[in-house]
Fold this sequence. Notes:
- This protein has about 350 residues and is an alpha/beta fold.
- It is about 50% helix and about 15% strand.
- The protein has two domains: about 5-45; about 55-349, TIM Barrel (Alpha-Beta Barrel), CATH 3.20.20.150.
- The protein has an eight-stranded parallel beta sheet with strand order 6-5-4-3-2-1-10-9. Strands 7-8 form a two-stranded antiparallel sheet.
- The longest helix has 22 residues, at about 25-45.
Amino acid sequence: MKITRRKSIKTIGSGLAITGALGLSGSMISCSNKDASKAKAMVESNVVKKPFFDISLAQWSLHKSFFGDSLSGGFGPFVQALQTDPDSLLRGTLNPIDFPEIAKTEYGVDAVEFVNTFYFSKARDKAYMKDLKDRCDSNGVKAVLIMCDALGDLGETDDKKRNEAVANHHQWVDAAKYLGCHAIRVNAAGSGTAEEVKSAAVQGLGKLTEYGKENDINIIVENHGGFSSDGSWLASVMAQVDSPFCGTLPDFGNFCMERDEDYSCKVEYDKYKGVAELMPYAKGVSAKTHDFDENGDEVGIDYRRMLQIVKDAGFTGYIDIEYEGQTLSEPEGIKATKALLERIGAELA
């Protein structure tokens, strides 16, 4: 029998009527909705939430792998050697030129924060810097900043020495610009009273910031010992410099203001208070870690509390992995820190 379009529609309509009469239509629709809701919930549960920030790798996390035993004699002799034969300090198993590839292939991190002491003789070496940049580009790695040390004190009260320190940083501003970084990290160190060093640091940072502004490079200060580990002191320095090109790099663990002869911390500033005071000026954040418990949490820093402070400040930029522990190897410590940041960052997202 030939089924016409009209008969087909009539048959379907009759079927629907019968289904309705049996009370099945509403039940079927209800089951369908429940199944859809269940499927949606399953999909959502399988979606991995991303942290509210980006993750970078601080090169210092691998300083033993690059320097080997170069720091075993103390920081003083190390700095002296930097000035005379810096390449002789690279005694480790890894080569600094490979850092971008190491970050991407070994740790799955596509943003890096260089440290100038690994490249102390290379700031003006155009061929070397081109090679370093090419390695970033070929691995899809973003150069975020350069951490700068051993260049003189920007809080030096002697005008001549402070100006020399400012000038010493210029080559690293140039290098940062070439590599595509947004900043160099500096220190607000100096000798004298808190007020004397503050006044000098405002001048030194102010002058360096002028050069940074000319090159579209931020000058950011880390809490890095001495007066700079006092959050209120460093925040007041930032307020006085008062430039959008000068900011902070709050480090979760660098709040020791005074140490004993055995280098144990004698006077420590409240780390949570300090980070909260520095976050309004933050252009980066450093996630310092030393040791972890069985749950993967840092034993000396409440990361949920710390990252909540960061989030409350509206920060969504790069937080770097900076492992400095002794219990785990450098690779293990880096991976543990990354996992911690990803887990807590996603919880708070």
